[in-house]
Design a protein that fits this description.
The chain is an alpha/beta fold and 375 residues long. It folds into two domains: 190 residues, Rossmann fold; 130 residues, 60s Ribosomal Protein L30, Chain: A (2-Layer Sandwich), CATH 3.30.1330.20. Helices cover 34% and strands 25% of the residues. It is built from eleven helices and 13 strands. It has a 13-stranded mixed beta sheet, with helices on both faces. The protein is globular and about 60 Å long. Belongs to the FtsZ family. Homodimer. Polymerizes to form a dynamic ring structure in a strictly GTP-dependent manner. Interacts directly with several other division proteins. Keywords: Cell cycle, Cell division, Cytoplasm, GTP-binding, Nucleotide-binding, Septation. One of its GO terms (biological process) is cell division. InterPro entries: Cell_div_FtsZ, Cell_div_FtsZ_CS, FtsZ/CetZ, FtsZ_C, Tub_FtsZ_C, Tubulin/FtsZ_2-layer-sand-dom, Tubulin/FtsZ_GTPase_sf, Tubulin_FtsZ_GTPase.
């Protein structure tokens, strides 16, 4: 059988960052050279919005002074801009909405943006973070209420717990490193799924496959891991189905599983694909819808990356038997066989030039840190 490389040139993916944390995450993605996606930022804070690096910007509300940590202000501001939001999102096949929960803008505006996207018939995924513990019980409570609202408005929702970052990075991590790690996790969550569709592949996972998996009801999880070495396939698969930052999920309960295997064209072996799929299928039930793709990425060198998206999980649970938590290198440390990894826990629901929408002046500076009200 001949090999056929398949790409998805007609799939349009838009990524919108809402509030300060969402804007930071989108800036991180945009600065990484991900030119295949369209980036948008939306904020009630005109000053923070002016510091973003996206092609499209939407000021939510007229004051430009932020939401004052009040989700209702964020929601009302976004509601007034529904027409602008619809114009920015139209034409997309998939929209990622990324935000920090617990403040005013991200918590209040993200559900409105999700409603607009779904009214347009767009597959809508939320990628949000919960606050650090030190940000206080009120902020955590607001975040949980916002997540519950957003979960009813999206097809899938990835939740990142910032409070776990200190555990995996170490208590001596600096504040700058912690916030940067939070941005990185949000970014990896988005790009890990988007890559499955957008990167040309030898084995095809098309958009309808992704839609089928992402619209399974219940809980969901997403994980990605990279390894080099002779046993890279087994190790990458094992760590992709573990969750280094959040509580694990029992993969055997999943009703839909999406797997993407990436390696350089010269190193990817058929037996490695078999090893990866055997490891993952051993943790799933016989009735699960399993879709897999294989893509060539010569930038990986001798490494292999395995990405797993599992949906239709009934509830969070312990790790699957035999799976272990992936380790995350401390800042500045040189990782050993693990090059990069990212995993998270997900609840799911039954062009060129600058184009500004009510934007302040441009700036290349960083947006406000996730802890500020821009969320």
């Amino acid at each position: 059988m001949s090999e056929t490389k398949v790409s998805h040139p007609e799939t349009v993916i838009k990524i919108i960052g809402v509030g300060g944390a969402g804007g930071n995450a989108v800036n991180h993605m945009a600065s990484s050279g991900l030119s295949t996606f369209e980036f948008i930022c939306a904020n009630t804070d005109a000053q923070a919005l002016s510091k973003t690096q996206t092609e499209k910007r939407i000021q939510l509300g007229e004051s430009g002074l932020g939401a004052g940590s009040d989700p209702m202000v964020g929601r009302e501001s976004a509601t007034r801009e529904r027409a602008l939001l619809a114009e920015a999102l139209k034409g997309a096949d998939m929209v990622f909405i990324t935000a920090g929960m617990g403040g005013g803008t991200g918590t209040g505006a993200a559900p409105v943006i999700a409603e607009v996207a779904r009214e347009l018939g767009i597959l809508t995924l939320g990628v949000v973070s919960k606050p650090f513990d030190f940000e206080g019980p009120r902020r955590m409570r607001v975040a949980e209420e916002g997540i519950a609202t957003l979960a009813r408005c999206v097809d899938s929702l990835i939740i990142v717990l910032n409070s776990r970052l200190e555990e995996v990075l170490g208590e001596d991590v600096t504040q700058k490193q912690a916030f940067a790690a939070a941005d990185e996790v949000l970014s990896k969550a988005v790009t890990g799924i988007a890559e499955i569709i957008s990167v040309p592949g030898m084995v095809n996972v098309d958009f309808e496959d992704v839609r089928t998996v992402m619209r399974q009801t219940g809980m969901a999880m997403m994980g990605s891991a990279e390894h080099a070495g002779d046993d890279r396939a087994v190790k990458a698969a094992a760590e992709a189905i573990a969750c280094p930052l959040l509580d694990g999920a029992n993969l055997r309960a999943a009703r839909g599983v999406l797997v993407n295997i990436a390696a350089s064209e010269e190193t990817l072996k058929l037996r490695e694909t078999k090893l990866v799929m055997n490891a993952i299928c051993a943790q799933t039930n016989d009735d699960a819808i399993i879709k897999f793709g294989a893509v060539f990425d010569d930038t990986l060198g001798d490494a292999m990356r395995v990405t797993v998206v599992a949906t239709g999980l009934n509830r969070p649970s312990d790790f699957p038997p035999g799976a272990r938590r992936a380790s995350i290198p401390r800042p500045g440390a040189q990782p050993q066989s693990v090059l990069r990894q990212n995993a998270m826990h997900v609840p799911t629901r039954p062009t060129s030039g600058q184009h500004e929408m009510r934007s302040a002046s441009l700036s290349r500076q960083s947006a406000s840190p996730p802890g500020e009200d821009g969320q």
